[in-house]
Amino acid sequence: VMVKLGDVSLSGPQSVTEALSEKVPGDRITAVFYRKGKRETVEITLDGGTLSAEEILAGQGGPRPPPPVRK
Fold first, then answer.
1. Do residues 16 and 6 make contact, with C-beta atoms less than 8 angstroms apart?
2. What stretches in the chain show pLDDT beneath 70?
3. What's residue 16's pLDDT?
4. Is the dihedral of CA 50, 8, 34, 31 positive or negative?
5. pLDDT of residue 34
6. Residue 26: predicted pLDDT
7. Contact 34, 1 (CB under 8 A)
8. CB neighbourhood size of 60 (10 A)
9. In CA terms, which of 2, 21, 42, 67 is 20 to 30 Å from 10?
10. Which pLDDT belongs to residue 49?
11. Cβ atoms of residues 1 and 9 within 8 Å
12. What is the pLDDT of residue 1?
């Protein structure tokens, strides 16, 4: 479960929008989340793409989709 993006604590979809509203592709942001009860922090680079429903589910511990084909 993601709990923080940058300086913004996440409480729902609106807070995710707030955390990303000033960001552009290529920006780096710190994400804080809990996985299997353990708090983890990672630095991510925004790519400007959108996530499919499968990718969102994979991020929540569901089955992972195949990686996208890049040309």
1. no
2. 51-68, 70-71
3. 84
4. positive
5. 93
6. 87
7. yes
8. 11
9. 67
10. 73
11. no
12. 87
First to last CA, the chain: 32
Structure tokens at 2: 């993601």
> What's the per-residue H, E or C state across the chain?
CEEEECCEECCCHHHHHHHHCCCCCCCEEEEEEEECCEEEEEEEECCCCCCCHHHHHHHCCCCCCCCCCCC
Q: What is the pLDDT of residues 35-50, one digit of tens each?
A: 999 999 999 988 877 7
At 28, the amino acid letter reads R
Q: Which two tokens stand for residue 31?
A: 């994400």
Dihedral sign computed on CA atoms, order 10, 17, 12, 55: negative
